[in-house]
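Task: sequence design from structure.
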C-alpha cells in the first residue's frame, strides 16, 4: 500500500504525446503483359523472368490479365452457369505443394490434408518438360468445385485454377486437362 501511495503522484505528471507518421507507400507491382485478342499462346513473365505459354479452348472467354493474374478466362455452361479460370505466378515455392493444396481445399470447404495424405489426393502430369501437381476438389454436393495445377518453373511457381459450380467444372475437366498439356515454356516444344 505504501509503495502505491508513492507512485500515484508520479502518475499525475504523465503527459500524452501524439505523433504524426507519414504512411508508407505500397510497393509497385509488376504489370502483366497486355492480353492479345484471345490470349491464346500469351507469354507472360513470372517474378524471375521465365515465361510459359498456352492455348485455351475456344469456348473459354478471355478476361483482362492483372498484376496478379497472368491469364484469366470465364467458362460458361448450361443455364448461364460460369466458372473462373486463373493463371498466376509467384516467386519461390510459395509454401510448397501441401500448403497450396490445403489452401485450395479450404476454398471448397474441405479439411486440410496431412503430409502423408498429399500423394494419394493429388495427381501428377508431365507435359512439355513441365511437372505438374493436379487436384480435383469438391466440397458438399452441388457446391463449388476446383480443378488446380501447381507448376514449378524457373525460380517460381505457376498456379492454374478452375473454380465454379460442381456440375460445370466436372463437365470441363477433360478440357482443363487438355489445356494443361498445352502449357509450355516460351520458345519450347
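Answer:
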Amino acid at each position: 500500500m505504501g509503495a502505491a501511495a508513492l507512485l500515484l503522484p508520479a502518475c499525475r505528471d504523465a503527459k500524452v504525446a501524439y505523433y504524426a507518421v507519414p504512411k508508407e507507400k505500397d510497393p509497385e507491382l509488376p504489370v502483366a503483359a497486355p492480353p492479345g485478342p484471345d490470349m491464346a499462346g500469351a507469354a507472360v513473365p513470372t517474378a524471375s523472368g521465365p515465361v510459359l505459354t498456352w492455348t485455351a479452348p475456344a469456348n473459354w472467354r478471355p478476361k483482362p490479365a492483372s498484376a496478379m493474374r497472368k491469364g484469366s478466362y470465364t467458362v460458361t455452361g448450361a443455364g448461364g452457369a460460369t466458372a473462373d479460370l486463373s493463371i498466376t505466378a509467384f516467386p519461390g515455392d510459395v509454401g510448397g505443394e501441401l500448403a497450396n493444396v490445403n489452401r485450395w481445399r479450404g476454398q471448397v470447404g474441405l479439411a486440410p490434408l496431412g503430409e502423408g495424405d498429399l500423394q494419394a489426393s493429388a495427381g501428377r502430369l508431365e507435359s512439355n518438360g513441365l511437372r505438374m501437381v493436379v487436384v480435383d476438389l469438391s466440397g458438399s454436393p452441388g457446391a463449388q468445385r476446383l480443378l488446380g495445377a501447381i507448376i514449378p518453373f524457373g525460380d517460381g511457381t505457376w498456379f492454374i485454377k478452375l473454380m465454379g459450380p460442381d456440375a460445370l467444372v466436372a463437365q470441363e475437366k477433360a478440357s482443363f486437362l487438355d489445356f494443361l498439356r498445352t502449357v509450355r515454356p516460351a520458345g519450347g516444344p
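The CA atoms of residues 51 and 86 lie 16 Å apart.
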